[in-house]
Amino acid sequence: MSNDRKNLDEMLNLLKNLFEDGIPFNKVLGLKIESIDKNDIRLKFEMRDELVGNTLKKILHGGVISSVLDVTGGIISMADVIGKMAGRPQDEIAKRLFKVGTIDLRIDYLRPGKGKYFVATGSVMRTGMKVAVVRMQLHNDRDVLIAAGTGTYIIG
Amino acid sequence: MSNDRKNLDEMLNLLKNLFEDGIPFNKVLGLKIESIDKNDIRLKFEMRDELVGNTLKKILHGGVISSVLDVTGGIISMADVIGKMAGRPQDEIAKRLFKVGTIDLRIDYLRPGKGKYFVATGSVMRTGMKVAVVRMQLHNDRDVLIAAGTGTYIIG
Amino acid sequence: MSNDRKNLDEMLNLLKNLFEDGIPFNKVLGLKIESIDKNDIRLKFEMRDELVGNTLKKILHGGVISSVLDVTGGIISMADVIGKMAGRPQDEIAKRLFKVGTIDLRIDYLRPGKGKYFVATGSVMRTGMKVAVVRMQLHNDRDVLIAAGTGTYIIG
Amino acid sequence: MSNDRKNLDEMLNLLKNLFEDGIPFNKVLGLKIESIDKNDIRLKFEMRDELVGNTLKKILHGGVISSVLDVTGGIISMADVIGKMAGRPQDEIAKRLFKVGTIDLRIDYLRPGKGKYFVATGSVMRTGMKVAVVRMQLHNDRDVLIAAGTGTYIIG
């Protein structure tokens, strides 16, 4: 295993810990990182009573959906930064990660958020020195597409 | 006071109760309706530890912002429906309110979400038989514009 | 060939003619329908001097890109309506096609619009009685993704 | 008149000429700058046959609307850059203006584009070292709001 690869894994692991423990509202959402690699990130969360937006229909609150897709785009942007800065000192990378933030976000609510659990994925459509554009999706436990989004993130 | 006006107030009050008690995730956000009229709706929530997205900077999680703006657009769309159906039987109005839902949403994150409390407002840009388009804003306790959004809602 | 299939082809052909001859600004853009089927529509246009937005860089004007992606989403929504109304009288279908219109649109400008010609494609993400949500892409002659978009269309 | 003010006026004038003569597709749209100041820019264009999207209804093509609003946001972003760089050498400012470009755009089509002429305006919602977020509106000759948009622009 190369040093670069080892450093990349360390950074991605750091990102996972920061994400799950260091961001209070992610805990409210119950978000867990299922898998994380430079090009493949999956977030998962269980349906819970407090995430409901319509008690009669027992479906996810729209805000839960937009929150999860925004977080997904953000962490994919961060992984993109980590991948691009491979080989650089960790504190330099960490410093740049702190600058990552959402500029704008579009969410399309496609189908009712019914399910036992939900999985969010995404991919970078464009990346450069300053800005990344990411597409995100949310599927339920039966692989139905619940919502889709596009986010623009400042990355440098 | 006319009967229409009385019915309108009753419906808006019903909406307020439904909103604050019947939607679990709104309680997580701590959302309260400060004022509600056909053309003027203000939502308010206090900063709380679990709404934080960045513990170092103590700012709101982006998902809290998108959630609150989506809810704001939704309730404004509902008030628009109530206003348009003034004079109709309450159960007919209620039935139609259940159909209101977000189709899509754009959020612009303008400034860090710092503050003791936050106020969300909005206004209808277009409304018709089927769709309403609403613009929303989030200000902090010092009246700084934190974020803005545009939402398209199905209303019939 | 079934009657339904024949009617579908007739309607799609009608759509093609209407689109290329009946909409003046489509001629300005030089838009041609390369292929049209219920689930596969490709639009094409050549680079021309008057479509340029930056004479030094010789790239497409951003407005050409947003125009083409909006048109692409619109025609895909119309084809969706035609597909759903298969078997219904043509004048009933035509009447409904006239109601199709863009509610809102997001465009992401990903790479400079360089090329000899450009191809726009798209697919329906959600469709129902009232609204369709469509994703569109624009590629150049070397299959580079120039721009992507999401549009919400009223369809009924 | 201060030198700074004189330089600002020169730059804004340069921008006006570049805009009206140097961008071919702007000529197709027939776009003219009615007024240009650091904080107040108005673009105007006349209805013409080739801008029509629906010959029966004689309304603007949606692509004309998205084009004009994109251009409006872009020129407002450029004026913002000029204002911020007041006092710097003109070639330095010009160099930075060439970097301005649209990252993403949302357009809301609110009412049919009927009118003899149309006026586009806008204002900066957020600006910084790298990105500006601008809101734009299109009104017709009777001051009816036809469409609204939000654009994110790279500015540095």
Q: Going across the biggest sheet of chain A, name each strand in turn.
A: 1-2-6-7-8-5
The whole-number mean of residue pLDDT values of chain A reads 92
Largest sheet of chain A: 6 strands, antiparallel
Structural class, judged by helices and strands of chain A?
alpha+beta
List low-pLDDT spans of chain A.
none
H/I helix tally of chain A? 4
Please tell me the total number of domains of chain A.
Answer: 1
C-alpha Rg of chain A, in Å? Answer: 16 Å
The H-level CATH homologous superfamily of chain A, spelled out, is Hotdog Thioesterase
Tell me, what is the CATH class of chain A?
Alpha Beta
Assembly context of the chains: homotetramer
Note the overall shape of chain A: elongated
Notable characteristics:
homotetramer; 156 residues; alpha+beta; 6-stranded antiparallel β-sheet; two-stranded antiparallel ribbon; 4 helices; Thiol Ester Dehydrase, Chain A
